[in-house]
């Protein structure tokens, strides 16, 4: 591929695009807009460029740690609710007093079979 590059003197330097470097800088300045006067004028998130140059007020690890703690609390609460519901279901299901506590999956399977047994007529139970 051949480029049409003119030989230039020190005063007439042009790039391959044919635009004088000073003119190129002027175009870029106009596209960027007016300069920001203080740090209060900085946008919350940069529209482009290196995000690492914009530092937040608190360290990243601290925010991540706080989110992790909240997520752990939500999961713990969810598991407590699930275990409470399974305990309530175990009290309703018939079981022998000497039996050990049923596991979660055993409780769910037993409940499903118990419900099926009570909602299907005896003749359907014999054929199925």
From TrEMBL:
Any one GO cellular component localisation term in the record: nucleus
Start and end residues of each BHLH domain: 66-118
UniProt keyword annotations, A-Z: Transcription, Transcription regulation
Gene3D superfamilies the record matches: Helix-loop-helix DNA-binding domain (4.10.280.10)
Region (Disordered), start-end ranges: 1-75
Example GO biological process: axon development
Keyword Signal attributed: no
PROSITE patterns: BHLH
GO MF term list: DNA-binding transcription factor activity, RNA polymerase II-specific; E-box binding; protein dimerization activity
UniProt keyword Translocase, yes or no: no
Biased composition range(s): Basic and acidic residues: 59-75
Protein name, UniProt field: Neurogenin 3
The species this protein was found in: Oryzias sinensis
């Amino acid at each position: 591929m051949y480029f049409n590059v003119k030989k230039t003197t020190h005063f007439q330097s042009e790039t391959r695009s044919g635009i004088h470097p000073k003119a190129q800088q002027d175009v870029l300045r106009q596209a960027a807009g007016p300069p920001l006067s203080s740090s209060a004028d900085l946008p919350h998130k940069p529209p482009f460029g290196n995000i690492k140059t914009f530092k937040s007020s608190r360290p990243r690890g601290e925010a991540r740690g706080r989110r992790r703690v909240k997520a752990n609390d939500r999961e713990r609460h969810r598991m407590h609710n699930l275990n409470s519901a399974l305990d309530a279901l175990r009290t309703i299901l018939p079981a022998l007093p000497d039996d050990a506590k049923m596991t979660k999956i055993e409780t769910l399977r037993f409940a499903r079979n118990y419900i099926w047994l009570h909602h299907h007529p005896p003749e359907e139970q014999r054929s199925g």
